[in-house]
Design a protein that fits this description.
Length: 510
Amino acid sequence: MLARLEIDRSVGFGILTRAWNVLALPVTLSLIGSRFTPEVQGFHFTFASLLALSVFAEMGLGTVIVQFASHEWAHLGFDPAGGITGDPAARARLAGLARIVFRWFGVASLLLTLLLVTGGGWFLRARGAGVDWSGPWTCLCLLTGVTVFLQPCWSLLEGCGQFPNVNTFRFFAGFAATIVTWAGIWTGLELWAAPAGLATGLAVGTGLLLARYSRFLLSLARPGRDDRCAVGATGAACCQPGGPGETPDRGAAGPAAQHDAGRQQGTADPAPPTPPTPPAAGGPGDASGGAPAGPALSWRDELWPVQWRIAVSWVSGYFCFSLFTPVLFRFHGAAEAGRMGMTWSLINGLTSVANIWNAPQMPRFGGMIARGEHAEVERLLGRMMRITTGVVVVGSGVLLAAVVGVNHLALPVAERLLGPGATALFLGGVVLQAVTIPISTCLRAFRTEPMMEVSVAAAVLVTLANLGLGIPHGAEGMGFGYLVVHLVIVPWVFRIRRRMMGVPAAGESR
C-alpha cells in the first residue's frame, strides 16, 4: 500500500512534518484569535506575505540546484566519512555549482534584507498606528536573510538524493519553532513570537545540518584537496554499496542512479587518481578552479538559460499567491487582511501536504531522464497527478465543511476567517491548480522551464483581479478572480505537457 502511494522515508517524514503542521495549526490559530487583536493578527499575516518577497532573491535558483545536482549525483556517492566520492568530472561540476550558488545567495540575502527593512517598513507604516511592529519586523528581516543564505545547502542535499534526512531535519526544526512560537504568543510577546520561533527553527535546522553534513559541504568547498576516497591505495574504489538515502556516517556510497527515492546500488567506477587542475582563467561563470579535472560548470551557459525562465515563473508566483493579504491590508485594513491571511494559511496547508509527494520526485525524474527511462517518467507522473489531486480534493472538502460549521455555530473563530463563499471560491482555484503541480515538477526535471509563459499570464490576470475586483469587493472578488484565472490556465498546462512529451496527459488511461 505504501509503495503504491509512493511513500518512502523522505515522503514519510514530509507527511509527518505536514501532519504536525496540520495538528498544530488549530492551536496556533486559537492562540492568535485569543491573544492577538484583529489588528495585530493582520500585521502577523502581512509580515508573512511581505517576507515571501524572498522569492526575488532566490530567483528560481533553488530548483535549478536540485536539477543540476541530481544529474551530477548520478555518478557520485558518499564515502564512509561522509565526503563525496565518484567520477572526478561530475564532482568538479558539483563543486562548481556549489561555488556559484553560494556567491549568488550571499549577495542576494544581503540585498533582500536591506529591501525588506526599508521598503517593508514604509509599507507597514501606513496602517501601523497603535501596533508595536517595527522591532519584530526588523528582526524577522535579518533572520530571513540568514535563511536565504543557507538555502543552497538544503537544495544541494535534495539534489544529491538526501530528501529523507532533509525532511527529518525540517520536521524537528519546524517542531521546535512551533513550540517556541506558541510560548511567545501565550506569554504576550505578540508580534515578537514570530521572530522567536523563526530563530529557534533556524538554529535547530542549521545545527542538524552541520552535525550530519559538514564533511559533505567541506568536500564541495575543497574538491581538489579533499578528494580522499575517490580511489583506494591499490587503485580500487574504496566506497561501499549504499546510497544517498543512507546517512553518510553509515558508509553510504555508490552511483546515485535511483529507481526509488533515496535508494541506489552499485559501486563507483575504478579509475586512476586524477590530480587537481590549476584554476582556469575565465569570467564569473567559470567554476572550475581547484577542482578535479573535468568540464567546468558555467553559470552563464548552463544555469542561467534554465534559471531565468524559472525565476520569471517564481516571481510570477508571488503575484499569484502572496498579494492577497497586502492588498487587503492597504485598502481594507489590518483586520480584513488578518482574516484573509488566516484562511489562506489553511489553504496553503492543503497544497503543501500535496506537494510532499512531488518535491522528492525532482531528483527521481532527473535521474530517470538522464538514463533515458522515459516510460518510467510517464508512469511516475501519472501516479503523482492522481495522488496530488486526490489529497487536495479531500482536504478542500474538509476545510470548507469546517468553515461552514464554525459560521453555523457562530463560534468566535469564525470572525477571524473569511466567510464560506469566499473560501469556496479560493478552494475551487486551488483544486484546479493541484492538477498542474506534478506536471510542472516533471517538465522542469528536463532542465528547462516550460511554464514561464503560463506563470506570467497567471500573475498578470490574478494581479488584475486582485486590484480590479479586490479593491471594491474585498476577498470575495479576489476569490472569484482566482477561480476564473485557473479555469483558463489549467487547459493551457495540459497542452504544454502533451507537446513536450508527445503522449496523452498523465493520469489518462493508458
